[in-house]
Amino acid sequence: MSRFSEQSELYARYRPEYPQELYDFILKHLSARHCAWDCATGSGQIAKVLAHYFDEVIATDISKEQLSHAPQKANISYSIAGAEESGLPANYFDLIKVGQAMHWFDFDKFYKEVRRVAKPETLMAVIGYGMLRIDEQTNPIIDALYEETFGTYFSKNRKYLDARYQTLPFPFDEIESPDFSNSLVWNMDQLEGYFNSWSAVQKMKTDQQYNPVDKTMERLKQELPADQPFEVTFPIFLRLGKVQ
Known about the structure:
By secondary structure, this protein is an alpha/beta fold. It has a single domain (3-242), classed as Rossmann fold, CATH 3.40.50. It has eleven helices and eight strands. It has helices at 3-6, 8-14, 20-27, 45-50, 64-67, 107-117, 139-152, 155-162, 188-196, 199-208, 213-221, and strands at 35-39, 56-61, 76-80, 93-99, 118-129, 173-175, 180-186, 230-242. Strands 1, 2, 3, 4, 5, 6, 7 and 8 form an eight-stranded mixed beta sheet that branches.
């Protein structure tokens, strides 16, 4: 997936964080906190948080460029590895987590790997977030960009995100989980940077020499204050279960 390498710096800078309430919900269901696997860590946004709660965090990703932007901590180790063939030790992890990447995996092969590396009572957490929301004037403009880009590329994959991961196969002892959200105060530059971090936008730029973000920002500038920050909200969802 070299498409993620192209915008790795934008990804690290503009991708939203997850709220503390989400981590607290996961942590209270853990049986132990010795080691966590942050699978498809990207630029290590979740790994750096998990490092506060686990003795050891092992974070993997297929992109060397993404990992080059990850934060360094004494108890985090990073490696280049696929989700389905991680090369990690068997019967080792107390938590296995995937953030905003599960829709790219071969589900059967990944879940086989999960069972191999999991301890008894290991938690499997699949986290995702939906399209950001601002207000009733700007949301349709944002949705049009999403449809143009991801409707052209990766339409099969995005259907799982559109369904809030509820249609993913999840063969574990599932724990009912609430919905979460994360509200941020952004300016126009941050909003534009986030849009440009999308893999579908980067692919459109490469294939068509055209960036649809430009026209979207022009439309949004007519609706949003150019010199004042504004609130954006990301809906966040979780599938959580015990690996048996």
